[in-house]
Amino acid sequence: MTIQQIVFIVFALIITAGGVGVLVQRNPLYSAFSLILSFIGLAAMYILMGAQFLGVIQIVVYAGAIMVLFVFVIMLLNVRDDELHPDRHKYLLYIGVPLGLGLIAEVFYVVTRVQIAPAITDMHATGTVGTVERIGVGLLTEYLLPFEATSVLILMAVIGAMHLAKREKE
Amino acid sequence: MPLLNILGYPTIYETFAILPELLLVLFGCAALVLDVLLPRERKELTAYFCLAGIGTALLALWQVFETNRIRLPFTVFYGMIAVDGFSLTLRLVALVAAALAIAMAVKYLDVEEEQHGEYYALILFATSGMMFLSSGVDFITLYVGLELMALSVYVLVGYLKWNVQFHEKRGEKSSEAALKYFLMGAFSSAILLFGFSIIFGLTGTTNVEQVAGLLPGLFKANMLTTTGDARLMAIMGIALVAAGLFFKIAAVPFHMWAPDAYEGAPTSVTAFMSVGPKAASYAMLARIFLVAFAPLRVTGDPQIPGWAVMFGVVAALTMTVGNVAAVTQQNAKRLMAYSSISHAGFILLGFVAGNEMGYAGAVFYLMAYTVMNLGAFGVLLSLRSEERVGDKLDDLNGLYQKQPALALMMLVCLLSLAGIPGTGGFMGKFYLFGGLIQAGNKWMNILAVVAALNVVISLYYYARFIKAMFTGKEKEEAPVTLSPPLHATIVLTVILVLVMGLYPQPFSQLSRFAVERLGPPTPPQAAQK
Amino acid sequence: MLICTALSLLPKETSGEYGPIAGYVPVVLLLLIAIAFPVAALAAGRLVRRKVETPEKQIPYECGVDPISDSKDRFSVRYYMIAMLFLVFDVETIFLFPWAVIYDKLGVFGLVEILIFLGILVVGYYYAWRKGALNWV
User: Fold this and answer.
1) Which of B472, C6, C52, C103 could form a disulfide with B397 if both were Cys (CB 3.0 to 4.6 A apart)?
2) Is there a contact between C97 and C117 (Cβ–Cβ < 8 Å)?
3) How far is it, in rounded angstroms, from Cα B206 to Cα B504?
4) Do C55 and C84 fall within a single domain?
5) Is the predicted pLDDT of residue B28 greater than 90, yes or no?
6) Does the CB of C129 have a partner CB in chain A at under 8 Å?
7) Domain end (from C12, C40, C70)
8) Contact at 8 Å (CB) between B161 and B116?
9) Residue B168's pLDDT is what?
10) B414 CA to chain C: closest CA distance, Å?
11) List of E strands, B216-255
12) At which of C70, C100, C124 does a domain end?
């Protein structure tokens, strides 16, 4: 077993544990924290695949910023224990479990049957696709225009959030 | 610096090609600052400032065309943006739609007590996104353009606030509509992106023309034994991209969001989103399906139908479902939502026809649809006053007695929407039907018959508008007042509708110029469906 | 100190047995230390302290004052604006990393690009500031 395989198994277990944690925790806040664990494992997976930049983004944006919003919404609502009705949606279990099993079967089928197109394996062989440097070169030269357009997109997110959230008439 | 010596800098010359977009973003940013600086009672100045911005962008667009006339088409920014007939024409449509939508909104927002500069800035940003959609020839550019457009429209739909003194319900509806639209839109964007990533995985490129070059290789007969699954993946990718785009143009079965979003949005936003973003989404659809996936329009393999079949079925469904649902509506905005769904189906006919006439017809129809729909919405907007919401069909009652000229202009727009000869809508339908019949195969003819039946259904509900205007008994005496910009907009749209109907040559020339280099030559064998 | 030692032990090339994870040994070490530190501190506390349980000691500690309400109190919606702005500018920061890494290769051209990028966002910042998103009241 190579080191890569060991690292993969360790982090795969962390991701799974995090995912299970999200489901079984009764307190939504603990579910959110389990999700962070899962995200960190996922970041390690990206790094393992040679996508370092994506790994860093996974931690900074998802485990950082997005989870802040998650936790904020949970704390904003802060549903008390007596307001929870955990049994109301029991029937979802009978839909969810078969769907989940179906997904596992699908993934198994794809992994065992589908061949990867030659273009992808070529790129993988060089092993430098996901470095910050490569992304920087792509972002600031070839994809310069979409990159600048993204800043307008972010600007619009600011305006939208401000306008929709500020409900009071000044 | 070897990096840029290899790749080369984008020159001033290349930057000039996207000058209209740059100007829009610049004016949008300036409008935001202006909004902060202006006192509350002078906020409407932002509207005129933004109109000036669109005017400047139009001039810039004309200059781009004039200076590059002989060297069209070409791409700039490392193959991200195409400057060709299609992009120039669709960018023109986007700018005109934005200008009319801004002019229409000035008075309306005063009545809603929501006169803010953000509104106009968001329309400018949305328009720059629409223009990137029209000219993008790379999945990444197209996607960023799409999000640029969609994100500002989500905000615009939820623009009204909860505690407007008059009609608490309006703000609530607006927020609900925005949430629905946002969730649906976000899902559809994700589906679209999933499709893109599959196509990228198969071909290793995001450029539409390179994808077009590589896709047929996956379908070659001798590849079947070794990479049979790659073929399946390609079909899945194309289906996902199609589903995502059908969401955006509100084609059946992905149309559910449209009536709610159209009804809840402020009327001026409904007017804008029913034309501008729709036309831009069609531009994206055309760029992807008529260029990138063009080789698979009809596959040589009899077991695998090309996407033309899917488009045919979706077009027929969209027209029929939209029209049948529109018949029973009581809310004018909801009715117009279903009507716009059915128009989406008509425009798809051009894609199915697959010949120059069909493509040009689709572009012509988009132009005609933009002006006639904006005209009709302009009249609906004029009904809004302090005492009246003005989105019920009954609110049109007795319009002819109150404002005969306005009622007649509405009549022209409605007749055009229905496709009566002498109007732009008729010429658009004429070209689309012509394209189908020219394609000359049994299934296309059946599709044409379905479309013709739909024209008959649509006549019925447009007639309901006309009946209300001319014979309806008015309940209240609230007068219909027109602000000068709104009046000018309606008059302009009506003139354009009539010119397109009576003297369509310049516009049909423009549409042919647009589709000149779009789409591949149809395969020699007759399109089988 | 430990990290410096680990750095010197690192394999230098990125291919081979370690693949793309070569160079992450210090990160893993840091992670292990981060986990071990609180565990060790709490365990040491548990071993050393005396166990005297009184009702007062079971109350959550709130700056030395007796708690006045349940911990499940609803948060002010004002945090939303701050969380949202944080998210937006966090995403913006992400785009600065790739630029910083290849700044020397792009030179002035890269600087102009990033200044345009930031310039547009400064407009957003100015807008949010003047609209009072940063005011608490």
Assistant:
1) B472
2) no
3) 37
4) no
5) yes
6) no
7) C70
8) no
9) 55
10) 41
11) none
12) C70
CB contact under 8 A, B77 and A144: yes
CB count within 10 Å of CB B113 equals 13
| Interface touch A117/B230, C-beta < 8 Å | yes
Best-predicted range by mean pLDDT among B201-215, B311-325, B399-413, C101-115? B311-325
Q: B77-97: per-residue pLDDT in tens? A: 888 899 988 999 999 999 999
Q: What mean pLDDT is predicted for residues A11-32? A: 90
Residues of C in contact with B4 (CB under 8 A): 105-106, 109
Domain count, chain C: 2
Q: How many Cα atoms within 13 Å fall on the side-chain side of residue B372? A: 32
How far apart (Å, rounded) are the C-alpha atoms in residues B319 and B227? 38
Question: Residue B372 has what pLDDT?
Answer: 93
Strands (E), B60-122: 74-76, 81-83
Specify whether C63 is located in the same domain as C82.
no
Give the bridge partners for C65, in sequence order.
Answer: C62
Please tell me which residue of chain A has the smallest CA distance to C89.
A154
CB-CB contact of B439 with B432 (8 Å): no
CATH topology of domain A1-81: Four Helix Bundle (Hemerythrin (Met), subunit A) (1.20.120)
The pLDDT score that the predictor gives to residue A111 is 75
Residues B448-490 pLDDT 10s: 999 999 999 999 999 988 888 888 777 666 777 788 888 899 9
Q: Is the pLDDT of residue B149 over 90?
A: yes
Contact A142 B7 (CB under 8 A): yes
Nearest residue to B157 (alpha-carbon basis) of B260, B244, B233, B69? B260
Domain ranges of chain A: 1-81, 89-126, 131-170
pLDDT in tens, B384-420: 877 777 778 888 888 888 888 889 999 999 999 998 8
Mean pLDDT of C91-113: 86
pLDDT over threshold 70, residue B236: yes
Q: Which residues of A touch B159 (CB under 8 A)?
A: 163
* Inter-chain residue contact A117 with B81, CB threshold 8 Å: no
* pLDDT, average across residues B204-221: 82
10 Å CB burial of residue B470 (0-12, 13-18, 19+) is middle
In chain B, the N- to C-terminal Cα span, in Å, equals 55
For chain B, what's the residue count? 529
Whether residue B128 lies within 8 A of chain A, CB to CB, comes out as yes
User: Structure tokens of B491?
Assistant: 């008059």
**B12–chain C Cβ distance below 8 A for any pair:** no
**Interface contact C105-B1, CB threshold 8 A:** yes
Instruction: Assess whether C80 and C17 both reside in one domain.
Output: no
Which is more confident, B226 or B502? B502
Residue B285 to chain C, least CA–CA distance (Å): 29
CB B527 within 8 A of CB B354: yes
> Using CB atoms, which residue from C24, C83, C128 is nearest to A69?
C83
Backbone Cα Rg of chain B: 23
Do C92 and C62 belong together in one domain? no
ipTM of this complex: 0.86
Residue-level pLDDT at B170: 63
Whole domain around residue C125: which residue ranges?
74-137
Q: Which residue of A has its CA nearest to B214?
A: A119
Structure letter (DSSP) for residue B482: -
Pick from B355, B490, B369, B499: nearest CA to B434: B355
Gyration radius of chain C over CA positions: 25
pLDDT confidence bin for C84, thresholds 50/70/90: confident
Note whether C105 contacts B33, CB cutoff 8 Å. Answer: no
Residues C66 and C89 in one domain: no
Check whether residue C105 and residue C60 sit in a common domain. Answer: no
User: Which residues on chain C are in Cβ contact (under 8 Å) with B35?
Assistant: 127
pTM of the model: 0.89
Confidence of residue B523 (pLDDT cuts 50, 70, 90): very low
CA distances from B483 to B101, B477, B486 (A): 14, 19, 5
